[in-house]
Amino acid sequence: MDAKITGVNTFSGSYEGLLPKTFPKGFESFYQMRYELTEQQYCDFLNSLNPKLVKERIDLDATFQGISRKDYGNFISLNNEKFLTTKPNQPCSFLSWNDCLAYSDWAGIRIMTELEFEKSARGFDKPKFREFVWGGSEITNQYFLDKKLYKCDESNYCVDGNIHVNYLGFSYFNDVCTKNGSDKSYIGCRSLSQDIEYRGPLETGIHSKGKKSLNRITAGGGYFGTLDLSGNLREPVIPIGSIESRNYTGSNGDGRITIEGKTDNKDRYYSNE
Q1: pLDDT band at residue 155 under the 50/70/90 scheme
Q2: Rounded-to-integer distance, Cα 61 and Cα 42, Å
Q3: If you ran DSSP here, which 8-state letter would residue 158 be given?
Q4: Quick one: what percent of the chain has pLDDT higher than 70?
Q5: 3-state class percentages of the chain: helix first, strand second, coil last, to nearest 5
Q6: How far apart are alpha carbons 123 and 135 in whole angstroms?
Q7: 29, 58, 198, 205: which one has the fewest Cβ atoms less than 10 Å from its Cβ?
Q8: CA neighbor of 163 nearest in space, from 126, 137, 128, 129
Q9: What interhelical angle do 97-107 and 39-46 show, nearest 10?
Q10: Phi then psi for 245, rounded to 5 degrees?
Q11: Distance between CA atoms of 132 and 12, rounded to whole angstroms?
Q12: Distance between CA atoms of residues 7 and 167, nearest Å
């Protein structure tokens, strides 16, 4: 809340009322995926749907600010009526809120609340000033490394550093990407290289690979070992600021969705399709 970024890190919603006892606040234990949802996992989901209804869950022609899916690092395609990806371990971008609801219902899981997200990142530690999800304010230099020189676990790239901020060209992140917004030797954010020709997320867990010293700070990991809690993609969570969201009880999906490819779990606040 101290980053002083206009329109970011500011509270939105209602201050009124109390959170019900049934709202997951992070005091109880919960399961969490260690890595972000991958393109291969989402392809498996798409391939299980009725082909006539799969358009509800993906639009291959979608663009963001006039830029295509592939330019933003989404490599899902349709080939012989089957969804495939050339980057199976790439975090899946271009997902709407309702896509997330449908997938979690189908997979028998759920979306965590923002309080559970805080617990996943901070654990039992006390808050610190300018704290990132890896428990400190350190941002290590971000360099893209050549696969020929470094072993990258069969990835076509690997990185040094502990964060990948996915907002290329956004002045909001000058205080994170460069020291004092000007010192180019302090590079914490993503920069394009000759090896990576797209904007967008990097392979899941990329910051924990190919490093001699591995800990929360170098890997950018949460308290319990979850990776990529920030930087790679925005993390969808159930907020406390919305009155509607406070009825959320945290029930898992049942493995079934509607014939329209939508969630049928009543414990999913707002689905405006």
Answers
A1: low
A2: 17
A3: E
A4: 74
A5: 20, 10, 70
A6: 9
A7: 29
A8: 137
A9: 80
A10: -70, -20
A11: 21
A12: 14
- Tell me the two tokens of residue 165: 């901020």
- The identity of residue 31, as a single letter, is Y
- As a whole number of Å, the end-to-end CA separation of the chain is 32
Residue pLDDT, tens place only, 103-128 = 999 999 999 999 999 999 999 999 88
Report how far residue 222's alpha carbon sits from residue 240's, in angstroms, rounded to the nearest whole number.
Answer: 21
Whether the predicted pLDDT of 62 surpasses 70: yes
Report H helices in the chain: 39-46, 97-107, 114-122, 174-177, 216-219
H or E segment at 83?
A: strand 82-85
CB 175 within 8 A of CB 126: no
Q: For 106-135, what is the HEC assignment?
A: HHCCCCCEHHHHHHHHHCCCCCCCCCCCCC
**Residues whose CB is less than 8 angstroms from the CB of residue 2 and which lie 6 or more positions away in sequence, other chains included:** 9, 129, 130
For residue 172, report the phi and psi dihedrals to the nearest 5 degrees: -55, -30
Q: What is the rounded distance in angstroms from the CA atom of residue 92 to the CA atom of residue 108?
A: 18
DSSP state for residue 6 in the 8-state scheme: T
Please report, as a single letter, which amino acid is at residue 207.
H
Residue 140, both tokens: 């290590």
Give the separation between CA 266 and CA 217, rounded to whole angstroms.
Answer: 39
Give the largest Cα separation in the chain, rounded. 57
How far apart CA 186 and CA 32 sit, in angstroms, is 33
Query: Encoding tokens for residue 263?
Result: 């969630």
pLDDT for residue 261 is more than 60: yes
β-bridge mates for residue 183, sequence order: 179
Residues with Cβ < 8 Å from 53, sequence gap 6 or more? 259, 260, 261
